[in-house]
Amino acid sequence: MKIVVDAMGGDNGSKIVVDALVEFKKENPSVDIVVVGDENELSSLKDICEVVPSQSQVPMDAKALDVMRMKDSSMLIALNKTVEEDADAVVTCGSTGGFLSASTLMLKLIPGVKRAAFVAPFPTAIKGKKVVILDVGANNENTSDELYQFGYMGRAYCQAVYGIEEPNVFLLNNGTEEGKGSPAVKEAYTLFKKSEFPGFMGNIEARTVLNGLADVVVCDGFSGNTLLKGTEGTASLIMNEFKKILRKNWWTKIGYIHIRKGVKELRETLDYKSVGGAMLLGINKVAVKAHGNSDAHTFLCALDVAKKLAENDVVTKIKEGLGVHEPEQ
After folding, report:
1. Lateral strand order in the sheet of 130-134
2. Which residues of the chain have pLDDT under 70?
3. CA-atom Rg of the chain in angstroms
4. How far apart are the C-alpha atoms of 114 and 223, rounded to whole Å?
5. Looking at residue 126, what is its pLDDT?
């Protein structure tokens, strides 16, 4: 297996990528890594990775056309390497918009796929269970046909990553009744229902997304990104307020001794960074966008996600789910 890594562009610099790669190689010595970035900053990796120098990095606010002109940027070089060396996956914590546009143009959409989508797993009330949500930010709006395709893409991801053979699939909506929602969501509901989509369970409201019933939740990119950031913010608020309560006085501090195991489990459940990042589904390679503010642990999680997706051949499973097959040679 070969994974290409863009080491530049994250909020915390390349050091966190270096630390993550050192740890990753200890656990996965057989995986080949090509890392792109500032040669001086990556010098400590030369004995364990192939280091490819770059002259610049893609800024977070870069527009699509700007990114494609930055031929000497770490992101463009990493994507070129992914194509040239037929690598299994590419990972970055750089510009989301830049990665989306450049990946779509350079790695190409799977034939028949209308739009790529970012997919991210969220924690649920059931310990150890995740719910897969897409799109969480690759698009501002989507058609009913695109939402329908997202269902197949999310289903394939859930099967490959979590081993759930028949995932429950829901549409995110402002009510559970059939006939609710925007025109695109109502049309998508009809498509899912008429096609007897495997595992389709109807609409789901945001307040019950994390109760553990759903395996896959389909939504447009604007709604999904709003749900993602709202959930992250709520989780941070809960943990911060809980810390204040535990530090309030000596009695609460003593009480913490008896519940610290539960507090640790709660912290781990609500830690969105442990997911590592979002995969861009619908293109011909495994492409993982790590959080822009990733630390070494978060980026290591993103590398683990990329490896797992490549091992389980999620791209092929998406093609099969959509009825797309490689042309005969």
Report:
1. 50-53, 32-37, 2-6, 89-92, 286-290, 277-281, 117-123, 130-134, 216-218, 169-172, 200-204
2. 64, 263, 265-276, 324-329
3. 20
4. 19
5. 84
On whether the CB atoms of residues 37 and 7 are closer than 8 A, the answer is yes
What is the rounded distance in angstroms from the CA atom of residue 260 to the CA atom of residue 242? 12
| Predicted local confidence at residue 193, as pLDDT | 92
170-210 pLDDT tens trace: 999 999 988 888 999 999 999 999 999 999 999 999 999 98
Please name the amino acid found at residue 251: W
pLDDT in tens, 140-150: 889 999 999 99
Structure confidence by residue, pLDDT tens digits, 244-280: 888 888 778 777 777 777 767 666 665 655 555 788 9
Place of tokens 């797992």: 308
Specify burial of residue 185 (Cβ count, 10 A radius: 0-12, 13-18, 19+). buried
**CB 173 within 8 Å of CB 181:** yes
* The pLDDT of residue 213: 92
277 vs 288: CA distance, rounded Å: 7
Name beta bridge partners: 204.
172
Structural contact between residues 79 and 90, judged by C-beta atoms closer than 8 angstroms = yes
Listed in sequence order, the residues at least 6 apart from 261 whose beta carbon sits closer than 8 Å to its beta carbon are: none
Please report the pLDDT score of residue 326 as a whole number.
46
pTM: 0.81
Residues 6+ apart with CB under 8 A from 38: 7, 8, 14, 53, 54
Residues 6+ apart with CB under 8 A from 156: 314, 317, 318, 320, 321
